[in-house]
Amino acid sequence: MVMKAGDLMNKRSKHLIIGWILVMVFLLLLPAHSFGQAPLVLTIQVEDMITAGTAAHIQRAVLEAEAQNAAALVLLLDTPGGLVDATLDIISAMVASEVPIITYVAPQGAIAASAGAFILLGGHIAAMSPGTTTGAAMPVMLTPDEEGTQTADNKTILFLAGHIRSIAESNDRPAEIAERFVTENLTLTSREALDLGVIEYISPDLTTLLETVHGETVVLREENVTLNTAGAQVVPLERSLTERITHLISNPQITFILLLI
Fold first, then answer.
1. 44 pairs with which residues across the strands?
2. Is the Cβ–Cβ distance between 80 and 253 less than 8 Å?
3. Would the pTM count as exceeding 0.85?
4. How far apart are the C-alpha atoms of 255 and 156, rounded to whole Å?
5. % of the chain at pLDDT higher than 90
6. 193 HSE (CA, 13 A, CB side)
7. Is 155 a catalytic residue?
8. Are strands 133-135 and 217-220 parallel, antiparallel or unpaired?
9. Among residues 85, 71, 87, which one has the least CA distance to residue 33?
10. Which of 21, 47, 239, 257 could cross-link to 243 by cystine, CB 3.0-4.6 Å?
C-alpha cells in the first residue's frame, strides 16, 4: 500500500491534534496546587445577634467551602449571642462539615459571648485576637415587659450545659470550663482562654493566624486532615438578600418593635 505525502501529513496533523487534546484534558484534571495556585480560604462575618439568618449563612458557607474544595472556612466572631435554635443549627452544620472550620474572635475588642462561645468551641481550630473576650453563655428569655430578659428555667440551663460540654469534649477542649460558661456565666479573656485550653491560638490578624496553623492536623469526621493555609487566597462570603431578610425578621428585638407598632 502506497501512502501519498499529503495523506501522511494529514495523519500526522490528526495525531498531533489528538495529542494536544489529551494534554489539555490531563492539565484540566490536575489539582489546582499542581500549578502553584494558592489554597482557597472562605471567611464569613458572624456579628450582631445570632439568628436564623446567621444559621442559614453559615450553612451555605459550609456547602460553598465543600463545593470549592476550600482549604478552610473561617468564622470571624464578634457577637453578644443570640437564639438557641439558630445556634444548635450552626453547630450541626459545623459538625457535618467536610472542610476544616476555624473560629476566630476578631478584631481586637470583639466578643464571642453566649451563643458565640458555643460557636467558638465548635471550631476545629479556635483562636482569639488580643483584647477579646468569650463566655457568659447562661441562657436568658426575652420578655416584652419592663425587665426585658430573665434567666431561663433550670431544665434549659442543664441541657445547654451538657451540650456545650459535649462540643468541648469532641474538640479536645476542657469540658468543665465550657460547662461553667453556661452554669456560672464564666467569662475569659483571650489569654485566660489560651492558658485553660479553650482556644489554641492568640493571633493579631487573620493572615498571621493562617500562616501559624498551616501544617496543623485536625480531626475531621474521624479522619486526620492537615491544614494547607499558608499564603491562602482569602475570599469573604457575604450574606445573600434572603439571608439578610431572614436575619432581620428572626431578630426577636425587631419582632418586639414590630409588635409594638
1. 75
2. no
3. no
4. 23
5. 74
6. 33
7. yes
8. unpaired
9. 71
10. 239
Instruction: Choose the weakest-confidence range: 96-105, 144-153, 211-220, 241-250.
Output: 144-153
Does residue 230 have a pLDDT over 90?
A: yes
Long-range residue pairs from 59-66, CB within 8 A, at least 24 positions apart, any chain: 59/89, 59/90, 59/93, 60/237, 60/240, 60/243, 61/237, 62/93, 62/94, 62/96, 62/97, 62/99, 62/101, 64/237, 65/97, 65/99, 66/97, 66/98, 66/99
Distance CA 180, CA 134 (A): 12
Q: Do 118 and 87 meet the contact criterion of CB atoms below 8 Å apart?
A: yes
Taking alpha carbons only, the member of 85, 90, 95, 91 closest to residue 156 is: 85
Nearest to 216, CA basis, from 206, 229, 203? 229
Indicate whether 168 pLDDT > 60.
yes
CA 21/CA 8 separation, integer angstroms = 20
Alpha-carbon distance of 161 to 137, in angstroms, equals 9
Active-site residue, from 97, 114, 190, 250: 114
Element (H, E) at 88: helix 84-96
Strands (E) across 2-138 are located at 40-50, 72-82, 101-105, 111-113, 125-128, 133-135
Contact in structure between 87 and 50 (CB atoms under 8 Å): yes
Rg of the Cα atoms in the chain = 24
- The catalytic residue among 4, 13, 155, 203 is 155
Whether residue 129 lies in the annotated active site: no
